[in-house]
Amino acid sequence: MSEVFKVRLEDGTEYGPVDADTLRLWYDEGRISKKTLVLRPEGAWGVLSEVLGLGAPVGDPTVAVGPARAAAPAAAPAPATAAAAAAPAAGEAKPVRPATGTRGGAPRPRPQPAPEPGPPIALFALGFVALLAAVAAGGWWFINRKTAVSSEDTIKEWASTDRRFSDASLGVSLQAPEGWVILRKGNPFVLVSSTLVPFAHPRTGGFAVLTMDSVPKREGLDPALDALMESRRVTLPGIVEEGRSDATVSGQPARRCAATWSADGTRHRAVMTVWQDAWNYFGLTGWAPESPEFEKALQALQGSISTTPVITARIQQAVPRVVEEAPQLTSVAAEGLVRAVLSRGGSPESVAQEAFYAAHRGRDALSIDEAKEMGKILNEQVYKPIPKEQRGQLAAFLERVNAGRSSQPEDDQSMREQIKAGVLALPDDTRARLQELWEKTVVAAIKQT
Question: Which of 87, 160, 236, 268 could form a disulfide with 182 if both were Cys (CB 3.0 to 4.6 A apart)?
């Protein structure tokens, strides 16, 4: 499978996934530039000139900004072919199949001559605020001088009359504290695709953004902060991380990171706090010219957030039912499978079936002796009691699993019930050993996906 990429233009529009040949075609056609930001397959962002080895960008008018919001739990989109991703000609070519939050097709050719851009550096000064966009997990800060503002009144023009935000599906709500305003959609100050709600604090010239990104493969909060700081350094090479500390948001464990940089003789400070609900990573990022007043205001904003881990609760509710249906699983293995299946948009009812496929995919994690031991327990104690007239059905079931062929869980319900009975009939110590070996294969299988 060829490597796939995603691009984002200066106006925030995102295209992809596409392959390297398509990126080069778009560049040759003038649709993207050497400075366009490209998301590499490994998840790191860089400019097109680095990705394709085009040489250093010089005076290129197109500056891309920020990554797309990760797709809400679903399987990754199929890579687009170069033919499918080619630029539309008179509306005849097929568009790229986009991931959630991205746009299909190809970027429009850049108009010529293009206006000279401002430097990709975020600037703040009391009384004169340049555009700064931020996210809490992998986003970007950037400047667009055409949308710079010069007064508190200009910010207030974009203030929403609604001071409350709530999303029950994500388990997040808040009431904007005094001094903060919620910015309306389309505002020129906070532009990032993963934004849940943007804020401004006119008195201090500060901004903040509440974001959410779904990243099933990420493990822990510090990797989220690592990705955040890495993305910041692309457009703010002078940014310096001051340190990290534990925090809480509405009683949920969180991690906090502070960073500073200087521009036009003014010292700026950003504070990023991230927490998670399973694979959903939430973040509150605030930034402003450094001042104790803004720090206090940002603490008040963080304190106004109420969050409930709705996905985690769903996982915890499903695990006991899965263990009951598939007693060869430990709670650890069951939870890992539930997380994996739900993150792909599946249902808990399919996890018992998935347990067999996971054991096959992760079998290489077992040593030769462990594989023999597991096979002996299954063949001589679990499968042996199955009536002879049903052995053909068992053979067909195991053949599908070994071949990786999918089937509807209900189709194999009867056979799973037979295997379940065999596992429950095992002596306690033998069943515990089977669970231990099965967990090892499941953990390995999850890491592969």
Answer: 160
